[in-house]
Amino acid sequence: MDLQKKTEPQVAEPAELRASDADRDRIADILREALAEGRLTADEHAERVEGVLGAKTVGELDVFIRDLPAAHGRGATPGYSPAPNRPTDAIPHDPDDNVVAVFSAAVRKGRYRAGRRIHAYAVFGSVEIDLSEAIFEYRQVVIKAFSVFGSVEVRVPENVSLRGTGAGVLGNFEVHTLDSTEPDAPVVYVDGWAILGNIEGRPRRGKLVADILDRVQHKVDRSLRKHLGH
Question: Do 195 and 148 meet the contact criterion of CB atoms below 8 Å apart?
Fold first, then answer.
């Protein structure tokens, strides 16, 4: 008789899994929508967002939305679906803007119109592309980045979608996936190669696309008028 006991591998429950930045972004999006809908006060929203930033596990994150419709599959925006990993619109091959840094630094930031395709080259230099205050005339924006012993940093508003499809060769390519809850929100795609360099894309906290905020405010105003009987 074999008296040796077989040890079953311990599998963590979903709620016990460590929370990622994408998990925190998803919960923050739900809280922001709840604030816009009037389900949370400004103080409640601020308190919960602070808790989200300090949460360690998925279960701890779920506590902050368990009394909201989105946590139970209700209240989702009609027609909403995650952004695709590749552009679906016809994106031109030629860039609308070239940002080049060779043994130097180059920056694009402020209130400017973002083209459909932006090329960034960092060779022993640094490139910063900050879209947090940009005007989005197109639904999809592609940033093609090349970093050789340099760095390319991309920053976007936190209410757009963000995708990354590049790679690093003895370097680092890191794009934080982000999904907007707004079906018409712009999608920024970061692609390219980091060769002994660094390419990074992430949302800039507190920065939002203004026209999306305007649409949310219109929804709130309509809801208030309906509630008040006007």
Answer: yes
Give this prediction's pTM: 0.59
Q: In tens digits, what is the pLDDT along the chain, a chain of 230 residues?
A: 454 554 555 545 566 788 888 888 888 888 887 887 778 888 888 889 889 888 888 888 888 888 887 665 544 444 456 778 788 888 888 999 999 999 999 999 999 999 999 999 999 999 999 999 999 989 999 999 999 999 999 999 888 899 998 888 999 999 988 888 777 789 999 999 999 999 999 988 766 776 554 554 445 445 555 555 55
Torsion of CA 209, 40, 62, 217, to 10 degrees: -20
- Output the CA torsion 97→100→106→110 (10° steps): 10
